Amino acid sequence: MRPRPAPSGPRAAGPSSLSGAQRVFGRDWKLAAAFIAPTGLLVAALILFPIISSVVTSTTERHGAESVFVGLDNYTALVDDAVFHKGVLNSFVFTAYAEIFKVTLGLIAALMLHHMRRGRAVLAGVILLPWVVPTVVTAFTWRSLFDPIFGSVNTLLTDSGIGPVLAAIGLVDSWPAEWLSDPELAMPAVILVNVWKGIPFFTVTFLAGLKAIDAGLYEAAMVDGASPWQRFRHITLPGLRHVMIVTVLLSSIWTFNNFDLIWLMTQGGPGDATAPYVMVAYSKAIQQLQLGAGAAVTLVMLPIVGILVLVLVRMMRRSDQPGSGDLGRSRLTPAQRAAMPWVIVAVSVLVLVWASPHIVWKAALVLGVFVLLAAVVGRVVSTLAARGNRTAARVVNGTGTGVALVGLLGFVLAPLYWMTVTAFKSDDQIVMRTNDLWPTPWSTEQFTNLFSGRAFGTWYVNTVLVAGASTLIALICAALAGYALARLKFRGSESFTVTILLTYVMPGALLFIPLYQMMSGIGLNDSLWSLVVTYPTFTLPFATWLLVGYFKSIPADLEESALVDGCTRFGAFLRIVLPLAKPGLLAVALFTLTNAWNEFLFAFVFITRNEYMTLPVGMQSMIFGDVVPQGQLAAASLLISIPVVLMYAFGQRFLTEGLTAGAVKG
Asked: How deeply is 263 buried, as exposed, middle or buried, from its count of CB atoms within 10 A (0-12, 13-18, 19+)?
């Protein structure tokens, strides 16, 4: 048999055949430069340069039409700024409670789904809905539900007898409750909505982590007589450790820098009871036109966000490093490692007690009820199984799981059901509170009014154009850069990968002020181009990071065979790699498209003219003071949600495959 010829592509080049430039910059540096140039330019122009510009802006103060250098005055002014202090405290309280509930409830939901034999995929898809629907839909739906006059929360809790009980035990001061206008209840209310939207993300990621745990470990533990609690403590929790840390860090960064949900629900009110630090920065920079003071607010929080980002980057890159599972462990003794979680919990509880004494005991009571019920059911099942009564154990376990799933599905679907039925009510039905849960008759009045009296169709077209254009840019640039980082050999690839990870989790709160200045400077404000240009700041880094992981999961031998047959590296990329990477590309397209579809902050800051608004900002503009067109908002929410839900339903299989490969290798 004739021997196979040696590869003629880049992989065949030995050290002696490399040019001087290749030995300095890497074997594939020319091709890599071409591949990563678009992403590098966009990241530098839209993320790195704006951050540097923000630092410069923070040292200036506006005097009339001119900006004057004031050094560190904007930072020193924050020391005595009570509004800023309240904003930081609100951000911390909002994030801490939301993460505690999302971790706990997401883990319980994931454990229930993991042990289901049938219908798990369907239930997981249903539970994912709150995460899929746009934030503007979430905010307006819950705002409608919390309305003391037209909402259903107070009515249902009163009719069920739960509301008076809540007042009797002190969870609310009086009944009926003023959820969003009571300073004591507004923050718990927005935390509840954030938890509702965030539970699916935690459930899906924890469920993926549970699937990765070796079932043989559980079998061995059962043979050794380990109880369910012991198996959970010594197998499940350690197995989920990495997934939990990455998920919590990601969610914490997003939650700490949240703007749109709180603005759309309360605009920081009543007073400043729910205003996060991002809203303080927006108020100073955009409403008061003091860009320097606003930039200082965002930058002074950078060290906190930076610590979270650096820890997250380290955790996300561990899977690429041999033996990385033990990184950092040698610095602590086993006793210190065991005590560390309890120390963190104790410190967090003390801080929360100091920061929000009126919330902490209520949150502990509610959370304790969920944990206690789960522990009691688990204990009963364990006791029955130990006594040999396996039939009774299965009945108790099935009943407990069924009740919990019904409660979870009710919590997930009730707001979406309310939005749907409200969209088909007439104005008279909404005002008179007739046929609350089932419109009689069903009416299309809200849809007719929505399109006849407003620029809703224009907003829809604008959103489609912006989301489509930004997704196309992200796909092209991310595919090129992701392939270069996964396959090509060049100096600086590791540094560029770290930069991508850093920009991936960089919050928009740090960027909207300098980007606003940039768009104003080049005359793109009040233009769809301002959104097309700036949306890659939050879509491109994620798309690149995910595709790096997916390209690494494709066997390199396939490309080598193409190179042997005379194909160029770029040809192999087009003909071999891209077709095999369809699941990853579809996952990226789905995420970038929905993120652009739902984006609020940049569109809210950059666009003021009605004809250029996107759907989230346009829907917000439908509210005039205290006049809230609930029916039209519900109809608009339904129309904005349907395309996203259909896209996720169609691409769920590709999404799971793409994210799994990306998460493992990225």
From this structure: buried
